[in-house]
Amino acid sequence: MSDNVRLKDMFFQPAFFEDLAKAVKKTYPDFDGKEFLGRVLDEGFEERALKERMRHTTLSMEGLLPQDYRQSLKILSATLIPLQDYSFEKTIYPDYVEVNGLDDWDASLPALEEFTQHMSAEFAVRPFIAQDQVRMMGQMLTWAKHKQATVRRLASEGCRPRLPWGMALKELKADPSPILPILEKLKMDESEDVRRSVANNLNDISKDNPSVVIKVLSGWQKEGGKEMEQLTSHALRTLVKAGNKEALELLGYPSDPSIEVKNFKLEPASIQMGETVEFSFDVVSTGESEQNLMIDYALHLVRQKGKTSTKVFKLSKQALASNESVSLSKKQRFKPITTRRYYSGEHAIEIQINGKSFGRKSFMLEVE
């Protein structure tokens, strides 16, 4: 069962819609709860994914709330406390603003500020950024100074260029400079959730503008402390996995370590789907002082039509003194999974230490 299936089985169940209908009707007696429940729990409901259920709920209220958008916002706001025990389901509140409020910013922005304190409005702010980036990014910078951590987090999370499940922000992917003042304001925030959002935003930026992220984080290192160390490590995770030398050096891993890799072995030389290859090797430090080593392995996969792809896996972090050595081994099993399809042919495992290759060995995989 996929993560998405598990989540949708947890949220947006009939009890929530019944409680929502009761809460709305208490504030707005003209609300037709029976009609709403019939619309939302229709024949296609069970097949909808998690975020689809969110939007379906919003659209199911169409015509059942007042035509006056601002009046509808007041009604929805009044239902937040009665529904306080629910969590992700409350994404319907900012979603209602996203669907209905792009023509009324003066009402929508305060509503998003309120709703995000109950459930993040990170998806809903993105169409506003797309519609008027200058105005909305100015609002996000204002929210970065808010007393509530949930609002400050929205300032960062909402403008991530590649937010999972959210619409991509193409202009910010091309030029992330409007994001940087927000992240600068929040980099040492007292809330771990906010700092983690800053790191996630930088990680997004790194996929299109790695040099920008390296420059920003290099300047932030003067702050020092465990919090900055954690933020930097989390922000650089994609670049580190790709073996980016500047990112590794920023984390204290030299791009040209003084080491030798010995006794690299891989067996068996040929396997069937469902079987396992095992590889092992020794790392010997030849430097005169202690070295930090980020030891990974790259799995080179055969794809369709003669193409190949590479996936990097973390293996170990080591601090080796002069002439010190460490022995490592790993089993890699090949089994069918929903997120990756394997093909027959010559695959390979490559040892990468601090982003540098230290040997590669091939093996045959037979897929029926």
Q: Count of DSSP E strands?
A: 8
Alpha-beta content class: alpha+beta
Number of helices: 17
**Secondary-structure element series:** HHHHHHHHHHHHHHHHHEEEEEEEE
| Overall geometry | globular
What is the terminal-to-terminal distance? 24 Å
Q: What proportion of the residues is helical, as a percent range?
A: 40-55%
Strand portion, in percent?
15-25%
In the sheet with the most strands, the strands line up as 2-8-7-4-5
Q: Largest beta sheet, briefly? A: 5 strands, mixed
> Low-confidence stretches at least 5 residues in length (pLDDT < 50)?
1-5
Mean pLDDT: 94
Q: What is Rg?
A: 25 Å
Describe this protein's structure.
The protein has 368 residues and is an alpha+beta fold. Among the domains are: 1-121, no CATH class; 259-366, Immunoglobulin-like (Sandwich). It has helices at residues 3-10, 14-27, 33-40, 50-60, 69-78, 92-100, 105-115, 125-131, 133-143, 149-157, 170-174, 180-186, 192-206, 210-220, 225-235, 237-241, 245-250, and strands at 259-267, 270-272, 276-285, 291-302, 308-320, 325-333, 345-353, 356-366. It has a five-stranded mixed beta sheet, with no helix packed on it. Strand 4 (291-302) and strand 5 form a beta hairpin. Helix 10 (149-157) packs parallel to helix 13 and helix 13 packs antiparallel against helix 14. The protein is globular and about 75 Å long. 32% of the residues are buried.
